[in-house]
UniProtKB/TrEMBL annotation:
Membrane topology: Multi-pass membrane protein
Name of this protein: Odorant receptor
Main localization category: membrane
Subcellular location: Membrane
Gene name for this UniProt entry: AVEN_52441_1
Parts of the chain that traverse the membrane: 53-77, 114-132, 235-259, 357-375
GO molecular function, one term: signaling receptor activity
Organism (species): Caerostris darwini
Length: 377
């Protein structure tokens, strides 16, 4: 809301010059003896309004979106901490029982941690260079404090403190988004691995064991998996929704900065930071989406296990067992539960996380890039 308000007021400011009546301008120029001087100053003012608006709506919006979304995610994490802790304990307990050899996608965790640390270092170095080296003189000349500070060292110290606090707020917001992405991706991959292990074990038991020896236990195991997915979705769906909002806003703002002709964004260091931010945001979006879609994909494969169970094996198990009706009823109860329960996670309960979301966002990004490029010509 803050960024949109700045953009709206800036557009209104642009229209001031366009709505200035022509006869008023002509009258002012005729009255004045120095016509050329005032005409030049008038159009210089309009040009300054037009050219400097992008600096506010580009660089400032980047910080606003990161800080606000990061603050919202911190509040959500704090309010959901007990649910997340309970879901993690439930996941560890079920994973230890049903899939004791699972490493919880350890190689992905190590890789994502390294990229996370690298991203934080790149952001810190780039912001320090941009703030205290490249644009330090501009900040000293333009930033005004609401109270009097004597010029000199005291003014520089106060300005440095304010800019450092702003940098810390932005980095803290981005850091929160990165931590949530790591958490969601790891949990989603672990749940999908658990579903895969359960499906393969169930298929193997159908082929090698008598159904009466495992069918009742497998029904309980499947119910525990369904409850686990519901607990994970309840704990993380709001976090994922705001994470998507933050990532998408950062992607579109990064495109605007890349196309911008603002002189402050033309240095090599800033261009590298913009490129890295674009790649990093897409990587985060891809990780969360693929992790959530893996649960849905493994759930669809699990539904096929009962359909692939040979009919003669089921009949043989029921004939061998003394309690035929109970075994048959339990078997179809298990298949019905697998078919009817949606094994998937959502974003705020509004949409199911699947690959279509990534393709939709890609389409929107390409369309937005083309439109912004055409407008910049």
């Amino acid at each position: 809301m803050c960024g949109s308000a700045i953009l709206e007021e800036g557009e209104k400011l642009k229209k001031v010059g366009l709505e200035c009546p022509q006869e008023v301008c002509q009258q002012s120029c005729l009255i004045s003896k120095e016509k050329d001087k005032y005409v030049t100053a008038f159009f210089l003012l309009l040009g300054s309004i037009r050219d400097n608006l992008l600096r506010v709506t580009g660089g400032a919006l980047t910080f606003y979106s990161t800080i606000i979304c990061g603050l919202i995610l911190e509040v959500i994490l704090n309010s959901k901490r007990y649910e997340i802790s309970s879901a993690l304990n439930h996941l560890s307990r079920i994973s230890g029982n049903l899939n004791p050899r699972c490493t919880i996608a350890i190689k992905f965790v190590i890789r994502n941690r390294l990229l996370y640390v690298l991203s934080v270092l790149i952001y810190v170095i780039s912001l320090v260079y941009f703030t205290f080296v490249q644009d330090w003189s501009r900040y000293k000349a333009t930033v005004k404090f609401p109270f009097y500070i004597p010029p000199g060292r005291a003014h520089d110290v106060c300005l440095g403190f304010v800019l450092t606090s702003s940098m810390y707020s932005g980095i803290s917001g981005g850091n929160t988004c990165g931590v949530i992405c790591l958490l969601c991706n790891t949990i989603y991959l672990t749940v999908s691995s658990l579903i895969t292990s359960y499906g393969s074990n169930l298929n193997q038991k159908f082929k090698t064991q008598n159904m009466s020896t495992f069918i009742f236990n497998e029904i309980k195991n499947f119910k525990s998996i369904v409850l686990l997915i519901e607990a994970v979705d309840k704990a993380l769906n709001v976090c994922v929704l705001f994470l998507y909002c933050e990532i998408c806003s950062m992607i579109f703002i990064t495109i605007s900065l890349a196309i911008s002709k603002e002189r402050s964004f033309q240095s090599g260091a800033v261009k590298l930071m913009i490129a890295w931010n674009f790649i990093n945001q897409f990587y985060l979006f891809y990780n969360v989406t693929m992790g959530g879609s893996a649960i849905q994909k493994k759930g669809e494969k699990l539904k096929k296990v009962g359909l692939e169970c040979p009919q003669e094996l089921c009949q043989k198990s029921c004939l061998i067992s003394k309690d035929k009706d109970r075994i048959a009823m339990s078997f179809f109860l298990l298949l019905g539960s697998i078919r009817d329960n949606p094994l998937s996670v959502t974003g705020g309960g509004m949409f199911v996380i699947q690959k279509k979301i990534f393709l939709t966002v890609m389409n929107a990004v390409v369309t937005y890039s083309i439109i912004m490029f055409q407008l910049s010509l």
